[in-house]
Amino acid sequence: MGRYVVGRLVQAGVTVAIVATVTFALIHLAPGDPFTQALDDPAVSAEVRALWRAKYGLDLPLYEQYWRYLLNVARGDLGWSVTLHEPVSAALARALPSSLLLMGTAILLSFAAGIALGVVQAARPGSWVDRALGTVSLFFHALPEFWLALMMLLVFAYRLPLFPVGNVVDPLLYDYYTPWQKLVDRLRHLVLPSATLALLLTAGVARFQRAALLEVSGEDFVRTARAKGLGERRVLLRHALRNALLPVITLFGVTVPALVAGAVFVEKVFAWPGMGLLAVSAIMTRDYWLVTACVVVVSAMVALGSLAADLLYAVADPRLRAR
User: Fold this and answer.
1) Which of the residues 67, 202, 275, 319 could staple to 99 if both were Cys, CB 3.0 to 4.6 A apart?
2) Backbone angles phi, psi at 210, to 5 degrees
3) What is the pTM of this model?
4) Which residues fall within 8 angstroms of residue 35, CB to CB, at 6 or more apart?
5) Alpha helix (H) residue ranges in 142-178
6) Would you say 35 and 83 are in contact if contact means Cβ atoms under 8 Å apart?
């Protein structure tokens, strides 16, 4: 198992390096640069423009810029954000915990709710409960992320002001709260964005879990458990569910990139200061170093999510551990 994990980590590192290289090339080959809007004013002299571009190495050939970028990354220097006026590492350190909190909460909620709904549907296949839950799941699965986020904001923050409009905490009162009040404030701000992502993911998990349970219910070991006189509930939860979790665990590795993409829209709508909002702002301002760092972090998250899915698959399936 240790050799397998090391091999997968090496593959993940190679993948992240390739993604970073392609992103670096594409963003530098596109027209313009981080100083286009600021320096392409006729009032700005050509000497000033050349001075700023030379300061950040944008006057060098692309291969030389890339080589300097690699050397800086090897030293732990991800560059300087020209729009935020701070090191890129500082911006990532501020945004990454917020994104991990949001996406981690959404994953836990969606898989817990999706597996439960799938079990309920598989226990009564073809019933009105199965059809109703399937229809609702399909409805949410087909919704665009930004539309659902806007509707959640409109209903639960404006029409029914139950939750805050956006941000992670109350910017005015948070510093004056007690520790318990700070926790409650963070949870209230987390409800709407995490619920939006969870609703979108729960539908897919529920449909996968239902299909997997119905497929497993016809296996020999399930029929043997029923023949021994075990109750239907125990057969479903103790015998069928564990084997039916394998396709859902595989779905976990696919969910991470979809969750990252959806989080971009959700963070934008709810003004959640995470990686999605940071990446959108960096792309709009052509902040080369910040864009590249965001892509590297996101690709690393996707690679680690895929590795986590493989490890969970091995935990659930003893045959894979044996191999």
Assistant:
1) 275
2) -60, -50
3) 0.81
4) 49, 52, 53, 58, 82
5) 145-153
6) no
Residue 100: partners with Cβ closer than 8 Å, 6 or more residues away = none
Q: Beta-carbon neighbour count of residue 247 at 10 Å?
A: 16
- Per-domain residue ranges of the chain: 87-322
Q: Give the pairing of strands 80-81 and 86-87.
A: antiparallel
Helix ranges (DSSP H) in 142-240 = 145-153, 179-216, 220-227, 232-234
- Give the fold, CATH level 3, of 87-322: MetI-like fold (1.10.3720)
Report the alpha-carbon distance of residue 101 to residue 92 in Å, rounded. 14
Alpha helices in the chain (DSSP H): 2-29, 36-39, 46-55, 62-74, 88-123, 128-141, 145-153, 179-216, 220-227, 232-234, 241-269, 275-284, 288-316, 318-322
Q: Measured between alpha carbons, how far is residue 195 from residues 28, 70, 134, 136 in Å? A: 37, 39, 19, 15
The predicted-structure confidence for 21-47, as pLDDT tens digits, reads as follows: 888 888 888 777 777 665 555 666 667
Sign of CA dihedral 188, 193, 199, 202: negative
- What lies within 8 Å, CB to CB, of 40 at 6+ separation is 49
